[in-house]
Amino acid sequence: MDLWGLLVVAAAAVAGVAAVSGGARKVQEWVYEWGLGEKRKKLPPGDLGWPILGNMAAFLRAFKSNDPDSFINSYIRRFSRVGIYKAYMFGTPTIMVTTPENCKQVLMDDEHFVPGWPKATCELVGKKSFLFIVHEEHKRLRRLTSAPINGFEALSTYIEFIEDTVVSTLEKWAGMGEIEFLTELRRLTFKIIMKIFLSSEGDSIMESLEKVYTDLNHGMRAMAINLPGFAYNRALKARKKLVAVLQGVLNERRAERAKNPHPATKDMMDRLMEAEDETGSRLSNEEIIDIMIMYLNAGHESSGHITMWATVLLQDHPEIFQKAKAEQEEIRRNKPPMQKGLTLKEFRKMEYLSKVIDETLRVVNISFVAFRQATDDVYVNGYLIPKGWRVQTWYRSVHMDPQVYPDPKDFNPSRWDDLTPKPGTFLPFGGGSRLCPGNELAKLEISVFLHHFLLGYQLARVNPTCPIRYLPHPRPMDNCLANITKISAA
């Protein structure tokens, strides 16, 4: 066969693949759109990808590369910046919203949008956690738990232990040589959250539970394939262990309460057991366990990752490091002579450090997307979101949008000077009635760590250009291998 013959065969093969591909995609659209009738013309631009797989291959390919934003950018490039696109994600037809105004509408409209997290997340976190309950049940749970988690009295109680743990841990790290900084931070934040929630400090218990939580977290956004070897299967086993441990602790607490109704010291589990609404109703065992599982996971995973990134970004930007350090030195200088540790009042004075943390949250995007489901046909930006379809609010796209944040990849805490974010433009803790209920506790943990790190330590990474893995959370592939050096008395 001559050259022209080979070209003809190759062209025919390409055309055949394209035809099959196009036909398969048309079938996928027909299956999910034919029932909409004329309304399907109001669907946003986009495509539903391949049958069964949908757009997940493109999503995973982008997030396993060094350019996770390429996934949404491909929609912007093909369909312009309309801020709303149709896709097929995590096994369901989905509408992705990517601009502040569209995210705001979805997040604020509790009447037409309810939680729509993937099956894996629902089964692993628990159906009675904040992520999944709706309407009055959700409002009741937030009322019952707001004071024990983010209240002034609770935070005032927690800050002393947080600080003592941070100080002793930094001292230990400085003598350990090379460490996986992220791994050690996750152990630190897990120790803190375990103490706050369960008064537990036993290293063996915490180490075993932390490993269980690692398996749980890796299965959160995985496909719900319950077969040996898959992340979801391991995560289900992890949840079963966690429920057994927490149920055992809860049973012991209730037995102790029967003998002593008013314990001298209380942790978060005690406070959740005591919490009651205006009718005298209290939380059930299932509610307490699901709340605990959610908070124990989020309270150490997110806090640990953000603390690592804030430390790395500060160390990488010496001028920002010095400005943040100067603020902490002033706080230390103004501390009353007889006062031992930090107070909440001093925490509130860490204005520049708060901007550093907010900028870290924006740049890093630990929670890059949230999930909802439409309870009725809804129109957003003139486009239809059909009843029953899932909706993804892409926080990452908002935070990395140059039209919202100029030079979005630049780490610039000063961008927050005299800036009050418009609704829908800053979403690290979500938005609307489902704003993360532990946001103040998380910022307190991170601030106390950075206060002491800035005053007395330095970090030197072994592999500063190490590639980043973006799923389930952005992190260096070497878990930030580094040396911590003590430079002065913190």
Question: What characteristics describe this protein?
Answer:
490 residues; alpha+beta; Cytochrome p450; five-stranded mixed beta sheet; three-stranded antiparallel beta sheet; 17 helices; 12 strands; 54% helix; globular
Descriptive notes:
With 490 residues, this protein is of the alpha+beta class. It has a single domain (90-486), classed as Cytochrome P450 (Cytochrome p450, Orthogonal Bundle), CATH 1.10.630.10. The protein contains 17 helices and twelve strands. It has helices at residues 3-33, 56-63, 70-79, 100-108, 119-125, 135-150, 152-174, 181-198, 203-218, 231-259, 268-274, 285-316, 318-333, 344-348, 351-364, 395-399, 439-456, and strands at residues 84-89, 92-97, 113-115, 178-180, 370-374, 378-380, 383-385, 390-393, 457-461, 468-469, 475-476, 481-486. The strands form four sheets. The chain has a five-stranded mixed β-sheet with strand order 1-2-8-5-3, with helices on one face. It has a three-stranded antiparallel β-sheet with strand order 4-12-9. It has a two-stranded antiparallel ribbon with strand order 6-7. The longest helix is centred in the middle third of the chain and has 32 residues, at 285-316. The N and C termini lie far apart (78 Å). The model is unreliable at 3-20 (pLDDT under 50). Belongs to the cytochrome P450 family. GO terms for molecular function: ent-kaurenoic acid monooxygenase activity; heme binding; iron ion binding.
